[in-house]
Amino acid sequence: MLAAVRTFAILGVEALPVAVEADVSRGLPGFAIVGLPDAAVRESRERVRSALSNCGFEFPLRRITANLAPADLRKAGPGFDLAIAAALLAASGQIPVASLERLALAGELALDGSIRPVPGALPMAEAARQAGLRGIAVAARAAPEAALADGVDVLPLERLEQLAALARGQWSPAPVAAPSTNGRGPALPDLADVRGQPSLRRALEVAAAGGHSMLVTGPPGAGKTLAARRLPSILPPLDREEALEVTRVASACGRAPPPGRLCERPFRAPHHTVSAAGLVGGGNPPRPGEVTLAHRGVLMLDELAEFSRRALEALRQPLEEGRVTITRAAHSVELPCRFQLVAAANPCPCGRGTEDEDCNCSPLEVKRYRTRLSGALADRIDIALAVEQPSAEALATGPGESSAVVRDRVAEARRRQGERLGAGRVNAELEPDALNPRGELDDEAREMLAAGHARLRLSGRGNHRVLRVARTIADLAGAERVGAAHVGEALTMRRRAPD
Amino acid sequence: MVPGPTACDACLRRTLLVDLLAPYIERIAMDRRGRSAPELLSLGDEKLARAAGGEKGLAFLRRASATPARELRRLLTDSGVWACCRHHHAYPPRLRDSREAPALLTGVGDHGRLGALAGEPVATVVGSRRASSYGRGAARELGQLLAASEVIVVSGMALGIDAKAHRGALDGAGLTVAVLGGGPETSYPPRQARLHGEICEAGLVLSEALPGASSWRWRFPARNRIMAALGGVTVVVEAAAHSGSLITAGMAADLGRTVGAVPGPINSWLSAGTNNLLADGALVVRGAEDVLDALLGPGRRAPNTGAALEPGLRAVLERVERGERTPDAVATDGGAGAAEAAAALARLELMGYVRSDASGRYERTLLSEPEASRP
Q1: Which residue among B131, B331, B343 sits closest to A485, beta carbon to beta carbon?
Q2: CATH assignment of B9-296, given 3.40.50.450, 3.40.50.2300, 3.30.450.30, 3.60.40.10?
Q3: What span, in angstroms and rounded, lies between the C-alpha atoms of A272 and A140?
Q4: A322-352, pLDDT tens digit by residue?
Q5: Interface check B198 vs A, CB under 8 A
């Protein structure tokens, strides 16, 4: 007898429909899985066998063939367990197949028949809706994240027996409600912890307001990492659409946030030994990298100069286009990666800074180090800032403004940008011709830019970066036009050539 | 043929002879007990050949004498290099002061500028290749301010101080002259190719070697004697205790030229050489004014004052003068917000009163305020 049920395979962050067909026929007892299964899928034979026996079902002592179609797509992971078990039960006549026809199944089986969550519940639920299915049955723990998809029922299953009861029409779980994407989760580290470093705080605020990428250089202990980790707390919360995008990625990687923290922006800080594939994604089948995990959030590269050249070079396309394309022989996957970059680096190889008496770095070493910094992503960093170790008195001052206060200003500046550029867009995305110096700059500011061009040897691109940052500073100040003071402040945040 | 001043056959052959003998001179000059390169170069053809290579040297002398000057001129033309020998009126007169002056100068760049080397004030600015940011900043600023005051800046295009002095002079839109050890058409060190190109455009690159000559070690003390002779004042910006730039200073002193040194931190070994020069009575160079005083006489200089400052900017400038180097320090010290402090610093930088280094620290330049704006 033959039966088929539906499930999904995850490729990148997308769910592709897979039909699981099972055939139970006469012949020598045996269990074969075909359709390019990997080792984990092949091992599902043992899990299914034990789960069936332990739940009181009969494991047919006949010739069993399970086919995962399309047969040319590689299947990986234990996520097909539930569908294989259901197809087997239906094919051996233990449950009716008709009721499973408009349902997708996704879950991993434990030997005792309980069902474990698999990565990608949200993209699978969305794909089920697109395929016109009535609902999707997933492990109870994955149900809230799957329920974020509208227009499709999510049926939470704890055990294999519940599936049988569902198929026989004896039991029906209450559909799970979608968790709220509003409100904030537990408090993030607060900007108030950054004490006595007004220009660092200011640069963070400007970066947050305009979505600008940022490079902070300074000796260890100057608070670079501390400050960068506080950037998410001053960014506006994700809206529903963004929260869905973020959760979709997280879900596909099996790391969906708990329901209360759906609107939190991701913060990723890969170690500097990360490979190019680990950073932008890769492998076969392609898996998302750090840039995709940081989608709509912050990617922090601490010790920028220590990252391999290959890894940093690989960042160019993602930074420019907001997505990565990974092409393999069989398929090509596009992954989203609109993130804000924050990088930190030491001022010289030893980290003390050339001003320090104990710094033994030779001038040539320092020059080479700085050239490496300026070579890396030079075109993409809008704000560069040098920080010093804060003095004891500065640390003794009370806490600075809290994140909530700064966040309100950032939100207001973003609202102004949205009005001018279109909803959701920020100044960091401005193309050189999108800024009209005549219309948006006052005379004094234009003169100042021209002087910068002549005296500070700013390149055309450098000029444009200053202009973008100045526009954000003006937005923060609530000014319609960019003034000289705004350009001035942006000039101090510019990247400088190594001397 | 590259149009330009001419060189007589004898001087061309002499230059060829020195090029041929280069490996032999290297052996003697690099030996502690041997004679120095400038000393050897002051000898006549035959004595030089004998001293450097004995019988082999004399063979080279015969070969050089047998080489038709036509061939050497073609070599120059093909490389785009002009030559000027010491019998030509365009040969810089200050070089003639030196007993060891080269027979021939080869050069790239507008040869008409040779005339300026005769008439205009010339300062030679030298220093270590391994230089601190203080030294590099000082070299660049001296180069710029001297060039802006119409002083020709001579240096050796080495990494570090030399390169910064040239760069500053180019910034100051003045004439700058690089003296190289090898052929003038090739950038040495190769990394300075861009600077070499800019100097060829806006200044002069000189050498005493034929095009294609390689840079033997002895070439450097040898070219130092040319730099020392060209400059009315020789300024050492930063030099460690046994730096090669001290050799240049010694040669300048031997020629009776003023030697100046930029004082450095007493705890920096990079400044030990310059501080020793000062202890020995060298001119204290606190800025371009001191060099200008030495070259032109006290008080004579091109005006070097910036635009008038409003009180807010003055307050920020004073804080930078007191040694506050970051926008943070300026802001917390004076109570101004980070944003205003940053804007003020940017404005001062554009006016030329302060400048920022690669990591964004600010420091005061030598630009002085107009008298009127001082309270």
Answers
A1: B343
A2: 3.40.50.450
A3: 37
A4: 889 988 877 888 999 999 999 998 888 888 7
A5: no
